[in-house]
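Researcher: Please translate sequence to structure tokens.
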Amino acid sequence: MSEEAVLLLAHGTPDVLDEMAEYLSRVTGGRSLPREVVEELQHRYAEIGLRNHPIPAGPPLTKWTLEQGRLLGAALGIKVYVGMRNWHPYIAETLATMRADGVKRFKAICLAPQNSRTSTGLYRRATIAAASGMEMEFVAGWAEHPLLAQAFAERLQPVWSQACAATGSRIPVLFTAHSVPCRTIMTGEASIAGARPGTPVQASPDPYPVEAKRTAQLVAERMAGSGMTEADWFFAFQSQGVSGGPWIGPTVEDTLKALAAAGYAGVVMQPVGFLCDHVEILYDIDVAFAATARGLGLKLWRADSLNDSPLLIEALAEIARGQWPAQVDEVVSIP
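Model: Translation complete:
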């Protein structure tokens, strides 16, 4: 077996509804949530097809993430592994398989392009904890990769053109990314290059909000050839947590109200913080935000998720080969 490999890191999602409470405890670091929160999440996942028995193709996030790994492996000609932080295949499980396969060195790429302590930082910690005896090169962020922006623009262009043609007006585009708790933006721990978990570091702003908006801007720039201007797009954070506490905004709900008040006939949504279908897209946008928009007299369209986009796979391949200067931590040898 090859001594070198690529490890794709993702959030993870439960396979069946009965796993929801355990899954959420993983997400919250062991903190239990009220029963009504668990039941609400079960409802949302049921709306996108999850049941109390496994779905043959797997839940959307797992299915598409594994497919992205398969396609990337075919493009690179080397083994690509997938590890999830909050569900199977867990990062530790995947690293054990890699070690058994003889992998000595690997490049880890988060399938969350915008660097954040709540995603990238936690993935990095989990990977270091399980990669003893291996050498890791960790990609901390790739929000500005030109092929990522091009992939999103490729999905956006046809639906934006359709929306404008259907209404006979300029329909705004609302780019979104997952919200994060306000406390994570200005507080920090060991998530910078070379710092091990628990190491005290000087607190600095989390780069996530800036990077998420930068991705949106780059997508909009690639839409200029289709007539999009700065006045045609907006940005909001979606899917604020159900467990309380302040989360960063503006929210999608408030932004939809503002667009309706401004007299727009509709809105095209494109989440640029997500690389494939999952509950935050298939439920939060397609069900919840669509209902909110209807109540405001807005028609809502959504650009297709990247999923198996060839441009996305090409972007990942360039990062894996070191052909694009992503934010890369120093190579870490884990004892």
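Researcher: Any highlights?
Model: The chain is about 40% helix and 15% strand.
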